[in-house]
Fold this protein.
Amino acid sequence: MYDGGIYRSDELFELIEDVGGVVLLKNRSSQMLTVTMSVPAEDRPLVEALCKEIGGSVKDVPLAGTEIAVVGPTLGRHHMPHPICDVAEYLRRLGAVTVVMGLARGRGKHTSQISLEESLVIGEYDACVFMLGNFKPCVETKAELILSKIDIPTVLMCGPEPEGVSDTCDAIVSGIGRKASRMREASDRAKLEEVGDRVDDILESRKRGLEEDPLFVHPAEIKSLLENLEPVNMCLRPAPLVMHLDGLRVKIPYDEYHGMVEDLSVYGRRLGDVCIITPSKINDSSMLIRIKTRAQVQYEDGLKAR
């Protein structure tokens, strides 16, 4: 990740293209610029030298190219304390695109619930960090009720160490409960690092699974293809193209543009034939692209040849 000013940033983008790299995410705020990129390891010294020359800095971001949901039981102040925002910001600094959300009816040990629509929305992300509270019986009850309905890799954050819920999530980080202050102390920062490490671990496991049956095309290649579309260039929403481990989120209306996206050509094939393109469950102004694996494409080719 490059972090610095916009001065001579065009030279940085040219160098990334020259070495065969790709820009994963670009954020500009006034005169400051943050660029998440992927470049060949042997060319990294060249990129670092240029970044230093133009007054910026470069750091490793292990969660680059992922979108993560940070979820609380509700959006009320009782369930949306400072640690949720601190965790979301820390994951952003590790390269992830994060979204903070709350459930409609997550309040109360005996009345909390998660709807099918909410679980489908959370399921659109690469991973989920779910934060519960400070009461052990409440944490155990809600974890069994809510996390068991989430199908993506999940990290549970809570105050006390829960018992009997390890099979409902992929990792548990205790010691982070509700508090009315920011996580500034050394012990707090250590907990943030622990959350980041657990998220990195479960996503690394998912990456290894994808390596066993690789995607037909890398998400970065589709991102480069979509950047040339006029609807994407005209989109005023932040980060109109968000990469996932197995695809992308494209922030343009599905009903209006899915035909245009499906008809794009990649490696001599129609994009709609090697990807599953669906509207986002959040709203109708975004679409999800899930890339099929090589085995899936080969199997479908075999069915068509019969």
